[in-house]
Amino acid sequence: MSFLTFDSKILSKTIGCIFFSSMVALPASAEAPSSEEMWRMIQEQQKLIEELKARLEETDGKVEVAKKEVNEAKQEVEAATEAMAVAQETRSQGASWADKTSIGGYGELHYNNLNDQNENDGTGADDVDRVDFHRFVIYLAHEFNDDIRFFSELEVEHALAGDGQPGEVELEQGWIEMDINDHHRVRAGLDILPIGLINPTHEPDTFYGVERNRIESEIIPATWWEAGISVIGEFAPGWNYDVVVHSGLDVPTTGGSAFRPRSGRLKVANADDTELATTARLRYTGIAGLEVGISGQYQRDITAGDDLFDVPATLFEGHVDYKHSSGLAVRALYARWDLDDDNLPLPGAGVDAVNADNLVGWYVEPAYRFKAPFNIPGDIGVFARYSEWDQRNQLGTHRFEEFSSIVTGFNWWPHENVVFKFDYQNEDADAPVDRVLDGVNLGLGYQF
């Protein structure tokens, strides 16, 4: 943009040109004007000159105003640019680490009022009447950049931990994940194993019933985490896979918990002599509301700490979880351990002696979730679950026996991440066992 600047010389030349042009414009044959006519002409020329001069002065004023506005705008742009540069430099220096760090968690409070139906088994009634803040969990995650991230989960169980106290503090997850590309990634550290439904996703607002189902606590010992390295990804739309090489179980071979999978969890706490295991999972989630999955695990010796013999073990699990948009839903899961002790030095010992060569469990759970009636906020869901599973029996020779149960109840979600629970359970067994429990469970759960 350029501006014209007018001075007195330009004005004089302009006036001279005007006067000369007016004189030239007179016809050659015309008589010389009288003194009155000349005076009138001079006045008209003077008036024109004054108008031109006023216009020139007005133009100069506008030019100066425009120059000032441009300079002010330029200063504002420079100030904004400098502020943006300072902000970007501050972020690059790590002041915005909090923007890439997130916190969350979940918790659940239980009340159990259960009656032991085996009051005449010679051991006395093992009734349960207790309240327990079962779990308090905090998540902490951080993104180092677009391709590398960290996740952790710290849990306090049963509210109070320490010597002689019922609870404990546990690190359930602590891993680093790195992207290979848009569809595949590598994860290393302490991680939940991808088996079943409850083990990978166990926040209380995501499942029915106060207590976790017995198949996914006895056969699949949820919550079950190990140290290892995994490859995770999607190889086709809706098709996901996990392959994990990790530390394994170390089940006892004697006592009341012999060969019980849940008793073999070392929780990566100075886990001496653990045997490597491999777990793989394949899932299909390509239809809205549907998950179909199968998992398998192999461990060369599930009694890793026992040097007298090896017990190879294989776990298979399959499940279906479907939630229809109408609110109808169904879950079904099957899990089975196969333990092999053909190399035992003494026939009749080991897994065969306690009926643990295969441990099986399954359940089916239909449900219906709907908008709460009247002015009650949120949703209500009703469910029923039938289960069968093998579990250690603390009577006699501590054999595994088959248990079954029916659990019915409802969940109320006043908010999608807050749930109140009620259920009634009725257990049975196919042989004399230490206890079977019937009664009521109440629960409160949340996640954020």
Q: Architecture of the largest domain, according to CATH?
A: Beta Barrel
Biggest sheet strand line-up: 1-2-3-4-5-6-7-8-9-10-11-12-13-14-15-16
Helix content: 10-25%
Backbone shape: elongated
Question: What's the end-to-end separation, in Å?
Answer: 58 Å
Order of helices and strands: HHEEEEEHEEEEEEEEEEE
CATH domain class name of the largest domain = Mainly Beta
Number of helical elements: 3
Write the CATH homologous superfamily of the largest domain: Porin
Number of domain modules: 2
Which class do the helix and strand fractions yield?
Answer: alpha+beta
What is the radius of gyration?
Answer: 41 Å
How would you sum up the major sheet? Answer: 16 strands, antiparallel, barrel
How would you portray this structure in words?
The chain has 448 residues and is of the alpha+beta class. It folds into two domains: 8-92; 104-359, Porin (Beta Barrel), CATH 2.40.160. The chain is built from three helices and 16 strands. The chain has a 16-stranded antiparallel beta barrel with strand order 1-2-3-4-5-6-7-8-9-10-11-12-13-14-15-16. The two termini are 58 Å apart. Residues 1-11 and 17-30 have low confidence and may be disordered.
Short description:
The chain is of the alpha+beta class and 448 residues long. Helix content is 18%, strand content 43%. The two termini are 58 Å apart.
